[in-house]
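Lab meeting notes turned into a lecture example. A postdoc, R.K., suggested we walk through two folding results consecutively so the class can see how the record format repeats. The first protein's sequence and C-alpha cells come next.
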Amino acid sequence: MGRIYNVLQILGLALIATYIASCNGKADLPFPGSHLGDSVIDDGGGGSRSDIDPGQLYVVTKIVAASSDITSWADADLPFNRPRRQLGVSSTDSQWPFEFGFTYPANNYALTEAHLLMVTSRDASDTEAIFVDGVFTGRPPDSMVSTTSTKVTHRLYNCRTVECGGAIAPTGPTNNFFLDWALTHYKVSTDNTFDINLQNLLTNTALTIADILSDGLLRVVTGDDAIVRDDNAGSSTSRPLLVMVGSTYSTTALTCNISPTYYMKNNYLFVDGNSIAQPAFTGSVLTPFNSSASPYAAFRSVEFYYDPRLPTLTSYDLLNITKGDLWLQLRRANTDPTAIVINGIGIDQDGFDRNTADPAVVESWSSDAVVRASWNTFVTGISADSSLQTRTLNLLSLLGASTMKSLLQQGKLNIAVAGPIARIQASAATSTRTYGVQVTGPELILEGNYAAEICEVPDNPNSPLNGGGVVPSVCTPPDPDVLAPTLSSIQVINITSSSATIQWLSSLETSTSQVGYGLLAPSTTTTIDNTPVTFHSVNITGLLPYKFYQYNVRSVDACGNETISTSKSFRTLR
C-alpha cells in the first residue's frame, strides 16, 4: 500500500494492460501515440537512488468531503442575499453554502493541484456564480449579490448588466471561469460532476491554492438555480469533494489507506474538430454542424471531440467506468461501408477503404470479430434513407471497460466517423457557444465510481521540501567543493495537453533549477531559476498535444559545479 505512482506511470501501466488485453479478444491496440513520437516511456520510475539519497519524492492525494452548511456564518455573512439551502435541497433563486475542514500538513509537503468536485447543473439563464474563500466569481443575477457581506474580499464576478443592477460593482478584472467552464463542457439542466481546478477560480487575484488551503478550511457558496447534490448512488456518494494532490518526501514506504467510494456522472458537450489538429481521414473533413447541413455526395468524414474530466488521482486503478455512451442524431445516406476512429483506434465494416485514413492518426485497425460485428450492427440499424435518426453507441461494449478507461486517461476523446453516416446533427458550431446560445449535438455520457489511495504525509521539519538537510558549499581553498550535485527523484507531474511540471531533488546541497526539453532531444531550455533549493519544481508550457517529449534536468551548486541528468521522456495528453 505504500507504493505511490505518479500520473505518468499509471498512464503507462494502463496502456500496457490495454495492449495485453487486446491480445485476449479486444481491439488490437499498439501504444497510442506510437506514430506521433518515440513509443518508449521512461520517466525514471519515481527517481534514481544513491547512497547519499536516503529518501525520495512521493505523489500523495487527499480527498475531503464537505459539510452540508457553514454553520458558523449568519445569513448576513453569505455572498448572496437569497435563502440558504442545505446540500441536496432543490430550489431556485437560492444559495448553497458548504465547507471543508481538514488537517493541512504542517511541513514536508508541496501542494501542486486542488480540485473542487460537486454534482450540480446549470440552467438556460446563463447566470451562475460561486464564492470560494473570499473570492466571488461567475455571472450572478445582479439582484442576488449581497451588498453587506464582509466575507467577500475579491468581487470578480461578471455583472449581467453594465450598471450591476444595484449590486456592488466588481473590484477588479472579472473572472467568469465558473460559468464558461459549464457552458463549454456540460449539458443544460442535467446533473454533472463539475470538476473545477481551484486555481482557475483565483485568476485575477494574487492568491494561490496553498494560500486558501493552508489553514485547513475552505468555504464555498454557489448561487442561483443550481442545486448541489448530496445523494447516494448505491455504495457511493455525490457529496462535494475537495481533492488535493501534492508531493512529500520519505525515507520509507508511506502509510496508506483506501478512501470511501465516490460517484461521478457527466453529459459532456462536443467540440468541433479534434484536439491534435491532424484529421484521421483524407478528403473532406467536416464538423457536426456543417455535416448535418450538407448532403452526402462523396466520401467524407466528420470529427468532434470531448474534454472528459476524470477525478484527479495519483492512481486510476480504483476508477470504475460503468457507463460510456455516445448519443448521436445522424443520417445514413447509403449502404457504403463506414468506419469510426476513437483516439487512434479504427473500427470498420467489411469493404471499407483503409487507405483513406492517415496512419499517423489511425494507429491500429481492429481485427477482433466481436468488435467489428458490434460496429456493423450499429451501422446497419440506421436506415439508409437520409432520415434523421437518434442512436446510442455503447462505447463500453464496443471497446471494453479497460480500453475505455485508458482512452479517457489520454485527456481528450477524439471521434472521427467516415462514410455515409458522416452526417451528425448539431444545432450550431461550437465556436458560437456563448450566453443564451445553447449548442446541441453529439453527447458523451459517462458514469462511474472511484476511490483513492490516501497516504499520510510524514512529519519532517528537516525535509528538503522545507529547505532542510542542507550541507553548506565551501568554494574556497584549502578544501573547495568540486563535486556536482547529486540529482534524484526526477519525475513528471501535472501533465496536460500543453504543459507539464518536472520536479527533482538535489541531495545535501542547494542548487539552481533548469529543464531541457524537446520532441527529438532536450534542445530547448527553460529560464534558469537561480534560487538555491534542494527541492526543484519547473513548469514547462507551450507543448504540443499527444507528443513524446525528451527532457533532462540541470542543477548548478554555489561553486559552479553542474549536473545534467540523462534524458527521459513523457507524453502530453491529447
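The second example is placed directly after the first for contrast:
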Amino acid sequence: MSSSPVAAAAFLAELRTRLTGPGCEFELVDENVRGVRLPVFKNRARSLTEHLERSVAYGEREYLVDGPIRLTFAAHRDAVASLAAELRERGVSPGDRVMILGANSAAWVVSYWALAAVGAVTVAGNAWWTAPETEYAIQHSGSRLVIADARRAPLVPSGVDALSMEHDVPTLMSSRPGEPLAQPDVAEDEPAVIMYTSGTTGRPKGATHSHRNLLSVIEYHRLNDAIVAAMGAPMGTAVGAAPPIPRRFLMTMPLFHIASLHNLALPRLVSGDTVIVDSGRFDVDRVLALIERERVTNWAIVPTMAHRVATHNGIDRYDLSSLVAVSVNSAPSSPALKSRLRAAVPSVQQSIVDSYGLTESSTAATVATPVELEDHPLTVGHPIVTVDVTIRDAHGNAVDDGVDGEVWLRSAFVMLGYWNDPDATARAITPDGWLRTGDLGCMRDGLLFLNTRRSDLILRGGENVYPAEVEAVLGEHPSVSECAVFGVASTDLGQEVAAVVVTSDAVDVDELRTYVAAQLAYYKVPSRWRITAEPLPRTATGKVIRAGLSA
C-alpha cells in the first residue's frame, strides 16, 4: 500500500466499502434508532449474552491475566454464569442498578459480564472517589447493590448491600458449576452502563450507555480487525509487524473509563484476545516489566503515561519488542510527545495512532492513522465508520471547511443521555440525535483538528476536572470569600489543577488542600495555589475572567 496519505485514505475507504457492503459480514443498513435513522451493523449480535456464549469457542485461551489469576475463556463463561445466577437469587433483576467500585481486576470484569447476563445496569464507580462522591453516585443512580474491593468498601454507606470483590465474588463465581446462561429480557436501547463524568455545575453526571451502544462498539472493533487483516498484517498492528495471535492487550486505564471497559474488555472477549490487567496507580517500571513478562502486543495509553515511558531513563533495561501497537487516548497529545515515544519504543514506530472521543460517545469518534499523522501531525483523524462529524456555530448552523466551531457527533454509539437528568440531556443531545460535545475545532479535507476541549475543562493525566465542581467545594470553606479554579500546563500531566482563593482570614494552603481532599478525588485537588485579598476579575455579567489568572 502506498505511504501517501491520499492514497492510503482512498485504499482504506475502498476496503471499508467492500467489508460493509450488501451481503458482507459488516453490512451497514439504516435503522430507526430512538426516532432517528442511523447507519448500523446489520449482522450484529442482539445481546451481550450472545457474545458470552460464543466466547466458549476460544476454550483454554487466556482471556484475563491478573497477577496469579489466569482465567480462560471457558472458565470465564462458567464463572459469569455462576455469579449471574447468584445475583438473581439475591433479587437483582433486569434494569436494576448495581455499582462496581474497585481497582482494575479480573473480578471487576467478571462482575460486569455477570450483571450484563442478568440484564442489570452496571454503575462504573470511580475508584478514586471520596466517601461523599461515592454516596452521591449510589443515591443518584439508585444502586441496590455495590460490588466493592477492600480498599473502597469503607466508602459504601451503611445500609447499602455490598459484596466483597476479594471474597464474595470468587466464591460466587464457583458456587454453581455448569450453570446455564439465561437470556435476559432487555431491549437494545435500554440502559446497560452508567459512567459518571465530572459535572460542569458542581455535580457529576451519569452518562448512560445502552446495550446498542456496547454492541455497536464491539462491531466497530471487529471491523477494524478485519480491515487490518485484509491489509495483510496481523490484526491490530502496523503493516509488516508480526505479533503472536491471539494478541495480548495491556489494560492500564481504569475500568470506569470507556477506554478499558467498552473498548478493551468487551471487544477482546469477542475477538479471543488476552487482556493483561494492571492495577493501581501507574508505575513505569512495574508496567514495563509486565509488558516484557507477558509479551504484550497492544497498549492504549493517555499522554501522561506516554510521557513517563518516553522519558524513562531505565527503559533500555526492558525487552519491549513484543509491543507493536500503541494508541494515545483520552486527552490531546503533541507531535513531539509521539516522536519521543517512537524513539523510546522502536517497535511501535509505524503503529502509533491518535483519536478523539468522549465518555458520551462510547468510543472514538475519529481516529488518525500513522500515515495521516505523518502529513498532519495535529489532526485527530477521520470520523470512524457510522459516525457523522460536523462543526456548528453558536446558533447550531453548519460552518464551512476550515472554519472553527463546536464539534457535533451523531451515531449509534452516542449515549442515551444523562441518568435522571433530562435537562442536561436536552442540552447535550438535539432532538435529531446530534451530540453537542462542547469541544471546539474544525474540519479540513475530512480530518478533524481540535482547538480546545470544553473551554473550562482541565485534563489532568487523562482525567477530566471541571472547575465548577472544585469551586463548589472550596466555596463552602468558611474562610473563602470567592475562588477560581483553572488548569496550568504540566510537562508530566498535561495540566495541573490551580486555584486562586480570595480570603481576608489567615488560612493557609495546607488547610485548604486538606479540606478539598476530604471531599473530592485526589486528582481534583489543586496542586498550585494563590491566596489573595484582591477580588477576582469579572465580566459585566458577573462571570469570573479566568484568562490571565495565575497561581
